Amino acid sequence: MGCAASSPASRQGRLGVHQDAGETYDSKNLRTKLVLLGDSGVGKSCIVLRFVRGQFDPSSKVTVGASFLSQTIALQDSTTVKFEIWDTAGQERYASLAPLYYRGAAAAVVVYDITSPDSFQKAQFWVKELQKHGSPGIIMALVGNKADLHESREVASEDAQAYAETNGMFFIETSAKTADNVNQLFEEIAKRLPRGQPTQKP
Amino acid sequence: MENTDMFNNATAQLTFHDFLDRMRHPSAADLVRSIKNFIGAFSSNPPDPEKDSQSVQDFLATTENAFRAHPLWAGATDDELESSSEGLEKYLMTKLHAKAFCPLPEDAEIDEKLTEKMTILQEFIRPEHLDIPKNSQNETSWLLAQKELQRINTYKSPRDKLVCILNCCRVINNLLVKASMASNDSPPGADDFLPVLIYVVIKANPPQLHSNLQYIQRYRHQGRLVSEAAYFFTNLVSAESFIQNLDSTSLSMNPAEFEERMHAGRQALQQGNGVSTPPQGDSREFRTLLASPEKRMMSPSKPSPPTEGGNPLKKEDKAAATKVTAAETENASRVLLSVDKLVAGVADQVLETEKSGQLRKDYPFLYASAGDLRVADVESLLHEYKELVLRYVSLRKAVESTLNSEKPSTGVNKRDGEVEGAAPPENSPASEKPFDYIRKQETATEDISLREMASGGSEGLQLLSPAPASSEFREVVSAGEPLDSEAIELNRKLEATEGNEPRSDVRRSSSEELSTSDKHALSLSPGDVEEVADLLDTKDLGPGALEQPKGVGTLEVELVNADDSKVMATEPTARQDSSQDQSRSEQQTTA
Predict the structure, then answer these.
(1) CATH no. for residue A133?
(2) CA neighbor of A63 nearest in space, from B186, B509, B512
(3) Cα(B354)–Cα(B300) distance, rounded to whole angstroms?
(4) Which GO molecular function annotation, any one, does this entry have (chain B) (predicted)?
């Protein structure tokens, strides 16, 4: 899997940093449900972990799984966005369950592995799915992960870029291993979120 | 809070008691009236899930706003307000449970089908069929997760039911994290989590899964079914959906073999179900049971008609019964049948003994009716029951091992041997079970202490015996007498010995949490009694919280060790329970 570089120490999360109680969400403080889709093994959860882990205190002893994680980021316009990141099982046999997860999501990140054309095919399948059944106005990102493995690249950036443009998504290549572009991915999504209205269904 | 705390709001910190306290205040009279009116109106309309859900959601929202504006909550912190809102939801839904839970016959039908399917599936499904990698397989520890799920019908409020689900997910998650650390894999995501959850759900075969999920979806305050709770809830919904649609193409196994096994399972079930329900009451049922234990085993999870949804006893009975099915069918069914055959073989002799009156002498409560029972009997009844269970289980174990050693082909180590339908011994549900019952008993005792005060007798006494082994009593004990003040006093004492740790305080968990989780009881002052009587069964029975991964982690370590030495980790817990029980009964004697 894609998190090969992570050392045990860096895998550790911290509990209880941010309290939810009493927090309010308004146009300045958004709460966003983000769903991750993509073939199993493309490193969906690694991307999230990399994103979340950056802000973690590595000395903490508590570890977390990566199926659900949340992370708040502050933007330059002084808004904050709390991402609640829902991972989905990428195996074929669970494909029909995905709508349960992306229902009500404000953003979807569709991940493929740049070394696997199959996973790119699967990503396109998810994009079509989301266009048909996702929340209207859902923000979609196409993410080519494992960019550090450029020597084994099988999916050309240009192809993915072109596909993303035709489908009104933004495209980025990331490496969960080196953390390249991971924060940028989420910041880019945060910037595109609509302001002034709740981003999650009540 | 971000990441890993299932119940991040402070609602859990303050107890249900706080809500009751406030509602007792004279100035809350208007609120109390409005709540009662709502309950009255809700209960008198015919069931309409969509509309009912909406009206409860609206009412919760309106009343919570009323809290905010009410002088009683002047200066209250957000936490306190949240706590009151949780209290309201719990109170309301406990009252409305009968009407709101499984309201339509269709729901009951789905439940029944699902239960049946899982009963068959759990006989042969292996982790490999869901491509769960070897290094994250841990069937023994998964039992813990299963147990959390199986407790779901012990509770009436949506939050408490939800906590069962979250606890289950948390156990799985923690086990996966451990496994991934051990093997230096990447941290577990949904790719790893969902298959294990599905496996655990099938093995647990939780009672009325479909109805429970719908109930939570409809009646858990929407504003609180968000974030991590919503995520894991969704996982369970998707597990249910997967199981409902599961066919020969869904698993990594030969489709023909799948069909064959499903067919065989269905036939076995039909044979088991073919007999009409045994006559109720007196020793006839006892005789029926004695004569055909396997029938009982195969059919208990049949849901009762939805109109009976209000009877928590039925539910608990079923919960317990289903649990038995889940656990027992996991056991090598052949061995089990042999045990039952043995039992059937001596049935005549037992009936002889019964006729001679010897049974009555040895087991004084065998034919007791509710009217005969006094509060003082509760303790001895409970003791007798526990002793019986332990004796029964050890006997059964002994018989099983004898049978196993006679047929060496069944019992041998199957950790990797996925082919045999016979369940692998590492599951050893039988060794798990007795202690489980004991823990359940603890809960039941609490039920009595509060419920009896409230409703007087019979319900509480019935609750005494959630385990099928003594289910005869449930039929027998049909009408009770109100308990006197002495009983109430006694109950208070009993509770005092348990300590009043607020159980729903999910943040304060430690590895002890698991053992104390069943023991929380509301502390009542004499003045409270009337109030509680009115509030009936709204005691704070929040599910035990395994909330912090740390606690679970510790436990898991125990389990892993236990796995090797074949000692169940729950044993110390159980011992603790029984010793506590011991001291309790001593307390009673001195009192």
Answers:
(1) 3.40.50.300
(2) B186
(3) 26
(4) guanyl-nucleotide exchange factor activity
Calculate the alpha carbon distances from A52 to A13, A86, A182 in Å: 9, 13, 10
Q: Which of A153-167, A178-192, B453-467, B567-581 has the lowest mean pLDDT?
A: B453-467
Our CA-based measurement puts residue A158 at a distance from the nearest CA of chain B, in whole angstroms, of 29
How far is Cα B195 from Cα A128, in angstroms, rounded to an integer? 25
CB pairs under 8 A between A and B: 148
Residues of chain A positioned with their CB less than 8 A from the CB of B184: 8
Question: What's the Cα-to-Cα distance from B567 to each of B372, B439, B543, B560, B563, rounded to whole Å?
Answer: 41, 18, 26, 10, 7
- Partner residue facing A87 (CB), from B10, B189, B550: B189
Which residue is listed with tokens 């009593």? B473
The pLDDT score that the predictor gives to residue B270 is 87
Measured CA to CA, the distance from residue B495 to residue B449 in angstroms comes to 8
Is B177's CB within 8 Å of A65's CB? yes
Q: Choose from B1, B128, B191 for mutation: most chain A CBs within 10 A.
A: B191
Chain A: closest CA distance from residue B338 (Å): 38
Segment A57-97, tens digit of pLDDT: 444 434 567 899 999 999 988 899 999 999 999 999 999 99
* Mean pLDDT, all residues of chain B: 66
User: How many Cβ atoms from other residues are within 10 Å of residue B64's Cβ?
Assistant: 18
Which is more confidently placed, B231 or A45? B231
CA atoms within 13 A on the CB side of B152: 30
- Cβ atoms of residues B208 and B102 within 8 Å: yes
Q: pLDDT tens digits for B517-571? A: 333 322 223 333 333 334 333 333 344 433 333 333 333 333 333 333 332 323 3
pLDDT band at B4 (very low <50, low <70, confident <90, very high): very low
At B253, phi and psi to the nearest 5? -150, 160
In this prediction, the answer to ipTM > 0.85 reads yes
Least Cα separation, residue A10 to chain B (angstroms): 11
Rounded Cα distance, B189 and B205, in Å: 24
Domain residues for A176? 2-18+27-192
Enumerate the residues of chain A whose CB falls inside 8 A of the CB of residue B14: none
More confident residue, B50 or A6: B50
What is the number of domains present in chain A?
Answer: 1
Within-domain flag for A201? no
Element (DSSP H or E) covering residue B275: none
Strand order in the sheet with A170-173: A68-74, A80-87, A29-38, A107-113, A139-145, A170-173
**Residue A52 belongs to some domain of the structure:** yes
**Closest C-alpha to B206, from B139, B142, B149, B269:** B149
A162 found inside a domain: yes
Say what the pTM is.
0.62
Q: Does a structural domain hold residue A200?
A: no
The predicted-structure confidence for A174-199, as pLDDT tens digits, reads as follows: 998 888 999 999 999 999 998 865 44
- Lookup result for tokens 């929380």: B520
Confidence of residue B380 (pLDDT cuts 50, 70, 90): confident
Q: Which residues of B touch A62 (CB under 8 A)?
A: 4, 549-550
Q: How many CB atoms lie within 10 A of CB B537?
A: 19
